[in-house]
């Protein structure tokens, strides 16, 4: 299994507060991705990175920002959390765009 | 973003039965992946198909990529309770920068 961890695994936060989720890999893969998974919508791409300090938006990027200052870490920040951002968040890594390897997920609840 | 539609959304069968899950699009994909996800975990890559018409077998699972690289199918022979899970297809967009995921097929195999 690819060495990929996410923290925290669970978080409950209040509307309006900033939240940062961390993805850490030990595989030295070039690409890193953040997805959210919601019933009826499947996995949707939020942001991705194709190298240190190189990031781009996915299909649902509004309200989210990312940073990648080291190959192994990819941070997802919810600038001001809203109830619509309650979801399960998955990080994925890959050396090629296809064949992505997923972390265990973070369950975020915004109250 | 290129779209992928999976069918059926839900499938409940008895142990020993055969089943087929479909993944369809009007767009061409460079490659297509199938993932399996269990509750509380991230998706796990099962297979990648790249060439139009390609067929790959993984024990009792048979994956096929359509000739035009717009669709794919997953066939399971003699399903077992351990096959229960969410099956996701994902296509590598021709732009080469990301995957598009289908919404998934929730399979339940009853003993």
Q: Topology, pairings included?
A:
The complex is a heterodimer of chains A (111) and B (111).
Chain A: E1 4-7, E2 10-13, E3 19-25, E4 31-38, E5 42-51, E6 54-57, E7 64-70, E8 73-78, E9 87-94, E10 101-102, E11 106-110
Parallel strand pairs in A: 2-11
Antiparallel strand pairs in A: 1-3, 3-8, 4-5, 4-9, 5-6, 7-8, 9-10, 9-11
Chain B: E1 5-7, E2 10-14, E3 19-24, E4 29-37, E5 44-49, E6 55-58, E7 61-65, E8 71-76, E9 85-93, E10 99-101, E11 105-110
Parallel strand pairs in B: 2-11
Antiparallel strand pairs in B: 1-3, 3-8, 4-5, 4-9, 6-7, 7-8, 9-10, 9-11
The number of helical segments of chain B is 0
Rg of Cα set of chain A: 13 Å
> In terms of structural class, how would the helical and strand content of chain B be classed?
mainly beta
Runs of chain A in which pLDDT lies below 50 for 5 or more consecutive residues are: none
Shape of chain A: globular
* Residues in helix, % of chain B: under 10%
SS-derived structural category of chain A: mainly beta
Oligomer: heterodimer
Q: How far apart, in Å, are the first and last alpha carbons of chain B?
A: 40 Å
Number of strand segments of chain A: 11
Q: Please give the number of β-strands of chain B.
A: 11
């Amino acid at each position: 299994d690819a060495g990929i961890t996410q923290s925290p695994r669970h978080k409950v936060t209040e509307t309006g507060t900033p939240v940062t989720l961390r993805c850490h890999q030990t595989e030295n893969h070039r690409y890193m991705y953040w997805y959210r998974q919601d019933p009826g919508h499947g996995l949707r791409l939020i942001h991705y990175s194709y190298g240190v300090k190189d990031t781009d938006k996915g299909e649902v990027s509004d309200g989210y920002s990312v940073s990648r200052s080291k190959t192994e870490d990819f941070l997802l920040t919810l600038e001001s959390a809203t109830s619509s951002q309650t979801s399960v968040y998955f990080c994925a890594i890959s050396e090629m765009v296809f064949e992505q390897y997923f972390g265990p997920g973070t369950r975020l609840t915004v109250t | 973003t290129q779209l992928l539609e999976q069918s059926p959304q839900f499938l409940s069968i008895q142990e020993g039965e055969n089943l087929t899950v479909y993944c369809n699009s009007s767009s061409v994909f460079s490659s297509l992946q199938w993932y399996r996800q269990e509750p509380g975990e991230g998706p796990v890559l099962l297979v990648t198909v790249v060439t139009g018409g390609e067929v790959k077998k993984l024990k009792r699972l048979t994956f096929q990529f359509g000739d035009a690289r717009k669709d794919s199918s997953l066939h399971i022979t003699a399903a077992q309770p351990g096959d229960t899970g969410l099956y996701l297809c994902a296509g590598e967009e021709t732009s080469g920068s990301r995957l598009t995921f289908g919404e998934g097929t929730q399979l339940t195999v009853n003993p």
